[in-house]
Amino acid sequence: MSIMTYRQALRDTLRTEMRRDPDVLLLGEEIGVFEGSYKITAGLLAEFGEKRVRDTPIAEEGFTGAAIGAAMLGLRPVVEIMTINFSLLALDQIVNHAAKIYGMFGGQARVPLVIRTPGGGGQQLGATHSQNIELYYAFVPGMKVVAPSNPADAKSLLLAAIRDDDPVLFLENLALYNAKGEVPDDDTPGEIGRAAVTRPGRDITVVAYSRMAAVALTVAERMAQTDGIDIEVVDLRSLRPLDRETVVDSVRRTHCAVVLEDDWLTYGIGAEIAATISDGAFDWLDAPVRRVAMAEVPLPYAKTLETAALPSADDVTTAIRQTLASVGRRAGKDIP
Amino acid sequence: MQLLTPEGERVAHPHFDIDITPDELRGLYRDMVLVRRADRESNALQRQGQLGIWVPLLGQEAAQIGAGRAMRPRDMAFPSYREHGVAWCRGIDPTELLGIFRGTDHGSWDPMATRFHPYTIVIGNQCLNAVGYAMGQRFDGRIGDGHDSADAEATVVFFGDGATSQGDVNEAFVWGAVYDAPVVFFCQNNQWAISEPMERQSRIPLYQRASGYGFPGIRVDGNDVLATLAVTRWALEECRSGNGPVLIEAFTYRMDAHTTSDDPSRYRLADELEAWKLKDPIERVKAYLHRQQWADGDYFAEVERESDALAARLREYCQRMPVPSADRMFSEVYANGSSAVSAQRDEFLTYLSQFEQTGGER
């Protein structure tokens, strides 16, 4: 075990995989000489050279499309899209090509492509540069979408994504890059499509991923002290495939759930999780599933308004208290 | 294409010569000094934590003032996010730019009154928007033969070298061409797209791309305000008379960082910066004004005083801009409002009313 940041875990894993497999190469804007806008690729150009660390023209559709072609031929390109917002320019290549080539050509070509890209608001980058639109890709059969919330998962899921034979959108988060945690030294890939119970608890299930899964853990520890409640946190880790079993199993034990997401509420991932719980644990539920999401507005740039619009630990705390209160009313007892 | 060398010597050009009066040249000099000062002051305000970010124009004053002053009041400009000099020419006070970068406003000018579209942050999108606007100008009969030429109008769209690799910009070239749109594609090639050099965007000079789309392209010394003015005037006249579009590549240099979040020392050499310092857009005009005895020390001192006053006004204005009220984020989601958004707003304001401070105070 080593203690390192999320950023360092990603960087080390890219290096490890590039050393292990000569077919792994990187493409993206500013990733070489500049070492990445968020410095994930620092030192990699120096070690692996321009053949395998490619600074591209300012053309997201271009470099994503080129990477798909390289992947079809058996290379394992890891594309960095500077932020997930810029992936909109490559939407056609991702949705209509990467996700469909394997099926539409009768299995003749696989697309072992990884698209690394950070989402997330809170950095005062304005409405067009602060979105969480992983939902667009999680919606598409043929795609895989993973969203690690801590350095250990960042490592194990990046290993898995690079070695996977399907296109994987690997969601990072600007607010997580400096998060520290224990990371195993061995290079065993994680399993894409497996959620984790990152904190077992009896009273309520909180389902989240990426940044909000980290927020959930903080809130759980705090509310254990302040409210004396025992929160179970389910970190989805993968949005497609989605591990419905772990979510349902947890709610069958706790009988109530709050779902967190960093994007807009309407049609969001929280709705999918709520439907999953309704399908699999309806008879076990003691309260309606609550969702916490951001305000349904283009994210303001003004710091005060941006902070107000994004879901916070306080919003999560309130939703948990409200849910437990309605559980208490139904059971006719006074739960805090 | 050059009309004024870096040493401040006038050179002739067979197609693009320009008659300039002492008054006009002094005006261009003043414009460039003031927009540079506003740029430097805004950059400093960001460094002091008064702005969230700033996008410097340093080094690109001639390209922007030349293009901006070539436009007539009726012409329409579509900027990227660095066109503070063009904004100046459209009558937008530099204080109005500060609100965007401080996060207190979204750009307070009226785009139709000033004929200056709001800043576009996403790379290259505005090129397609500008083509659509220019197509409208053509369909509405505002250009071409038989039209009162004083009344004719055209569009200028501003973008950079990095944007030329974007699909949107190339589609804008296609659309502009096939609809004969009266649009001047004004590319400021400042040599760097954040860390990526010009060589990563194109194998050929950018202006030569125009021939592939079927319209003229021309490269102009973007640090020469006279050349930029002359070429843009010509290009706009081509557009107004129905011969658009035209691509102008203003060859210039981004003397400062991409934005205040960038550190160019990581990817480019100081030598390159030093070489471009010798081609400064303002110094050459100053030298020429001196040589022609069109301006004296008193004049230059007066412009300097004026720029000091502008900088002081910016500082003062920046710090008294009001923090936006909490309901502001809900107020412009839909043109005619929405019950769902109103419900969110009411819920949020009710929540805030529980506190003595709402976060809007400072």
Automatic annotation (TrEMBL), chain A:
**Name of the protein in its database record:** Pyruvate dehydrogenase E1 component beta subunit
Q: By its UniProt entry, which NCBIfam families does this protein fall under?
A: PRK09212.1
In terms of InterPro entries, this protein maps to:
THDP-binding, Transketo_C/PFOR_II, Transketolase-like_Pyr-bd, Transketolase_C
Keyword Oxidoreductase part of the UniProt annotation: yes
Which keywords appear in this protein's UniProt record, sorted alphabetically? Oxidoreductase, Pyruvate, Thiamine pyrophosphate
> Which cofactors go with this protein?
thiamine diphosphate
Q: Which Pfam families match?
A: Transket_pyr, Transketolase_C
Q: Which organism is it from?
A: Actinoalloteichus caeruleus DSM 43889
Q: Which residues form the Transketolase-like pyrimidine-binding domain?
A: 4-179
> Is Plastid included in the keywords of this UniProt record?
no
Report the domain of life of the source organism: Bacteria
UniProtKB/TrEMBL annotation, chain B:
Keyword Oxidoreductase in record: yes
* Domain Dehydrogenase E1 component as annotated: residue spans: 30-309
Q: Which Gene3D superfamilies match?
A: 3.40.50.970
TM region(s), chain numbering: none
Q: Which SUPFAM superfamilies match?
A: Thiamin diphosphate-binding fold (THDP-binding) (SSF52518)
CDD domains the UniProt entry points to: TPP_E1_PDC_ADC_BCADC
Kindly state which keywords UniProt assigns to this record, in alphabetical order.
Oxidoreductase, Pyruvate, Thiamine pyrophosphate
Carries keyword Cell membrane? Answer: no
Q: Name one Pfam family in it.
A: E1_dh
The coenzyme or cofactor needed here is: thiamine diphosphate
Protein name as annotated: Pyruvate dehydrogenase E1 component alpha subunit
